[in-house]
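Forum > Structural Biology > Help requests

Title: Can anyone predict the 3D structure of ubiquitinyl hydrolase 1?

Hi all, first post here. I have the sequence for ubiquitinyl hydrolase 1 but no way to get a structure on my laptop. I'd be grateful if someone could post the structure tokens.
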Amino acid sequence: MESIFHEKQEGSLCAQHCLNNLLQGEYFSPVELSSIAHQLDEEERMRMAEGGVTSEDYRTFLQQPSGNMDDSGFFSIQVISNALKVWGLELILFNSPEYQRLRIDPINERSFICNYKEHWFTVRKLGKQWFNLNSLLTGPELISDTYLALFLAQLQQEGYSIFVVKGDLPDCEADQLLQMIRVQQMHRPKLIGEELAQLKEQRVQKTDLERVLEANDGSGMLDEDEEDLQRALALSRQEIDMEDEEADLRRAIQLSMQGSSRNVSQDIPQTSGTHLTSEELRKRREAYFEKQQQQQHPPAQLSHPRERPTTSSGALGSDPGDAMSEEDMLQAAVTMSLEVVRNNFKTEGKK
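Reply #1:
Sure, ran it for you. Structure tokens for ubiquitinyl hydrolase 1 below:
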């Protein structure tokens, strides 16, 4: 693709770009095309003068602007046709009855010039492949043989006039190179306007981003991103706190169980390999607290040895008001468990 000569659009000089892309080189300049246009204007003036220089038609012709060029750089088909005659080339209208009767397959031609209103561009065969050399594109566009006829038909539907270039085109490097190799195009070229619009949008986005960064004292962080980061940090701290609380709770429960098991193992016989029922656990708890009460308040010696001593915990046959309720025993167990945990924490703190 690099060997293909492709002039991009400048102003309204599409006729110049069309000719140079066709001939594959800088063959024509605006000055040379303007000279051809002036020559055509003079020939037309002389023809009008034949009817009399004092005629109304002649005076009207002199007041009208040139039909072969204008100040923007536009040139007429007559200027293009005369410029190609210098190289022995001729233009034939593609959809004219004379050409259509020849029934020539487009792929057997060498090049086409297409015109719509004031725009001109070339479609040319280089080597064994066809290329759209439109100056409005960012580069040459590869056209397959099967797509060429459809491409020309689409242009005609859009209102383009298509001219077949007849004659031998001058030799060029791209044609010689592409006779030996075939090229592939991964990405089709864009219109120059589209590319400029994309570049402009990118510049605007870059400017907006720089403005935001400056507003944030160069921190490089947008407000939304900063808020997201703060939320993430807060959630992370909450998770860490929850994990710490759970770890402390598990540790306290473990120490409580260890402490309780040590105390209970000293006073209550263990039943290995079996699970205690709730009734057995209640009886053992009553026995444990009854023993604790006996140690704290020894029973008084009675004169009647046959009467069973009464402890603060009471017996099954004693008065219900003197007996310790199951709720009181549960409260005492909780108090003992908490006391064991506190003692264990103090022990660990000393270590």
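Residues 259-274, 301-323 have pLDDT under 50 and may be disordered. The CA atoms of residues 146 and 158 lie 20 Å apart.
Shout if anything looks off.
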